[in-house]
């Protein structure tokens, strides 16, 4: 059953039940009050009448039923009748149908008290009030008053109350239905939105407001946005893992195919000793390439913090080692390598920093003309910075964004010639992440590049 219908029906039931219970209590109370008032009034009237009767008792022969009839006729205009009992025997009956109720308790009265009881005879209700003559306690007078009007009033009031109960139940249930519908609408919206999100549709937005549901909508929309971002991140991560694997298998496959081809050729063909040397050199070159890729992959996966040795240490010996190794390399191209260092200490893993900076210098050398210049600046400006500047071919804006990705090479043939597999800069990036730092690139095509390592 729909929630709004459930609320509608339960509100109907509750409203009708509560109004009927209240009505029943009110009617019962009202009935008691009416009976009490009637009793009081009748007793007061009856007191006077009995006094008169008692006076007349001595004046007239009271056994004369005519006198009692006169009394009855007179007071019956006021809806009062009297039954006269002498020594427990009804001598004059005002109403025969009531006579059978004039027994027991009601006759236990005396002149000092008025006893009363309410009886129902056929469709009528009567109030009986009894007392006795002061001069003769054996003579009891029972006053009979028809109070059926109280019952009729009760029935009218009850019917009216039932009508009001139904009207109230209908109004409150309709109101509850409208309200519950608007509440359940919000729940329906959330259900639809959840279903869409489960189907990777994040475009749905719930209406935000300051109400309770509006606040739920704010939280829901934020959650949906977070899920969208995380899903997109996961997809990207997955794609880049897949691309990494594709590139890796390609990079490994090329030298392996070459090695296989040359070794098969050497085995089969009638090859001269000079050619043998040449082909063996090729095989060696490709084997070295595979070993380099393997080493670089190891570095790339070198991520566990427990493997790191990040210590605050004297930076000068680190940069001196880099300078010595780099100078050896640039010799062949006669490149001028300038080092400017003002950093005294650096919190780092010495070996990793050397690998990163030498990688950058190596790249700079590969893209620089003979006799050109490479500058390495190390200084402190809020953070500790190592810059490697070259005046080589430069990098286009489009490529700047990509060259940090593993296996990405701008000029594949040239890079391969230099023994590169497109892993050097990814390794630098990885090393800087391990140091909680970053790598930035500034470059202009044809003018040169600046690679900046920023330490925290
Ligand atoms: P590789 O090991 O093949 O050199 P890297 O990740 O170090 O790979 O570099 C990726 C690509 O970025 C290189 O193929 C090269 O084309 C380009 N690159 C790197 N350094 C420079 C530089 N200083 N100037 C211009 N291009 C560069």
Which helices and strands appear, and what pairs or packs with what?
Layout: H1 3-59, H2 65-75, E1 80-86, E2 89-92, H3 96-99, E3 115-121, E4 124-132, E5 139-146, H4 148-198, H5 212-268, H6 273-300, E6 311-314, H7 315-330, E7 336-341, E8 345-348, H8 350-367, E9 373-381, E10 383-390, H9 397-400, H10 412-417, H11 424-434, E11 438-444, E12 448-455
Parallel strand pairs: 7-9
Antiparallel strand pairs: 1-2, 1-5, 3-4, 4-5, 6-8, 9-10, 10-12, 11-12
Give a description of the structure.
- The chain is α+β, with helices and mostly antiparallel strands and 456 residues long.
- The protein has helices at 3-59, 65-75, 96-99, 148-198, 212-268, 273-300, 315-330, 350-367, 397-400, 412-417, 424-434; strands spanning 80-86, 89-92, 115-121, 124-132, 139-146, 311-314, 336-341, 345-348, 373-381, 383-390, 438-444, 448-455.
- The longest helix has 57 residues, at 3-59.
- The mean pLDDT is 87.
- Adenosine-5'-diphosphate (ADP) binds at residues 363-364, 367, 390, 392-393, 395, 403, 408-411, 415, 420-426, 449.
């Amino acid at each position: 059953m729909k929630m709004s219908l459930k609320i509608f029906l339960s509100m109907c039931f509750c409203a009708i039940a509560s109004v009927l219970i209240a009505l029943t209590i009110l009617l019962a109370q009202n009935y008691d009050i009416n009976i009490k008032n009637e009793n009081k009034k009748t007793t007061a009237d009856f007191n006077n009448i009995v006094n008169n009767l008692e006076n007349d008792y001595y004046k007239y022969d009271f056994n004369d039923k005519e006198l009692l009839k006169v009394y009855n006729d007179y007071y019956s205009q006021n809806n009062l009748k009297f039954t006269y009992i002498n020594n427990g025997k009804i001598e004059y009956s005002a109403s025969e149908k009531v006579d059978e109720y004039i027994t027991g308790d009601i006759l236990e009265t005396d002149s000092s008290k008025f006893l009363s009881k309410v009886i129902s005879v056929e469709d009528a209700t009567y109030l009986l009030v009894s007392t006795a003559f002061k001069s003769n306690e054996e003579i009891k007078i029972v006053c009979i008053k028809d109070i059926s009007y109280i019952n009729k009033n009760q029935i009218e009031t009850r019917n009216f109350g039932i009508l009001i109960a139904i009207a109230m139940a209908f109004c409150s249930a309709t109101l509850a239905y409208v309200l519950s519908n608007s509440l359940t609408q919000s729940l329906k919206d959330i259900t639809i939105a959840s279903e869409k999100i489960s189907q990777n549709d994040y475009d749905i937005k719930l209406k935000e407001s300051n109400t309770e549901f509006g606040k739920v909508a704010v939280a829901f929309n934020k959650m949906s946005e977070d899920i969208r971002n995380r899903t997109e991140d996961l997809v990207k991560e997955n794609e880049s893992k897949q691309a990494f694997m594709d590139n890796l298998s390609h990079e490994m496959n090329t030298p392996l195919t070459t090695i296989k081809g040359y070794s098969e050729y050497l085995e089969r063909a009638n090859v001269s000793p000079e050619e043998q040397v040449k082909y063996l050199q090729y095989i060696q070159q490709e084997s070295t390439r595979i070993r380099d890729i393997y080493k670089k992959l190891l570095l790339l996966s070198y991520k566990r913090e427990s493997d790191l040795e990040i210590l605050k240490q004297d930076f000068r010996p680190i940069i001196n080692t880099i300078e010595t190794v780099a100078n050896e390399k640039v010799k062949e191209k006669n490149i001028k390598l300038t080092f400017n260092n003002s950093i005294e200490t650096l919190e780092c893993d010495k070996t990793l920093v050397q690998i990163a900076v030498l990688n950058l210098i190596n790249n700079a050398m590969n893209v620089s003309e003979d006799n050109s210049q490479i500058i390495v600046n190390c200084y402190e400006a809020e953070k500790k910075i190592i810059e490697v500047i070259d005046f080589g071919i430069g990098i286009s804006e489009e490529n700047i964004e990509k060259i940090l990705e593993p296996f990405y090479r701008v000029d594949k043939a040239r890079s391969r010639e230099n023994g590169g597999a497109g892993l050097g800069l990814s390794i630098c990036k990885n090393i800087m992440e391990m140091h909680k730092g970053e790598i930035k690139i500034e470059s202009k095509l044809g003018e040169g590049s600046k690679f900046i390592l920023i330490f925290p």
